[in-house]
Design a protein that fits this description.
The chain contains four helices and five strands; from the N terminus they run E-H-E-H-E-H-E-H-E. By secondary structure, the protein is an alpha/beta fold. A five-stranded parallel beta sheet has the order 4-3-2-1-5. The longest helix has 16 residues. The model has no long low-confidence stretch (mean pLDDT about 95).
Length: about 120
Amino acid sequence: MAKKLVIKVTAGADAPERCSQAFTVAAVAVASGVEVSLWLTGESSWFALPGRAAEFELPHAAPLPDLLDSILAGGRLTLCTQCAARREITEKDVIEGVRIAGAQVFVQESLADDTQALVY
């Protein structure tokens, strides 16, 4: 089993099941003691902003704010640089603990030894 898990979520409210699956897998991995790095890209980028996760609804799914909090508490949450720029999101706008980084960092994390990468 990989000791690190890098997850890229590309979906937001536009594909709620895929979005929820990514956050759920990340939160379960954190709770299981796995080192997790969750990347917000595309429409999921909005969840880097305060209050946005609370607007997300999916029946029979764990509340996104709870999943986000657990990921922030035990993992790393990154907002894609280009995705942030396209949405005019800056470092001063995001939730505390969210970093903004680009493709080079994603590739570096994904290719590290003992790492599994997943894309939703």
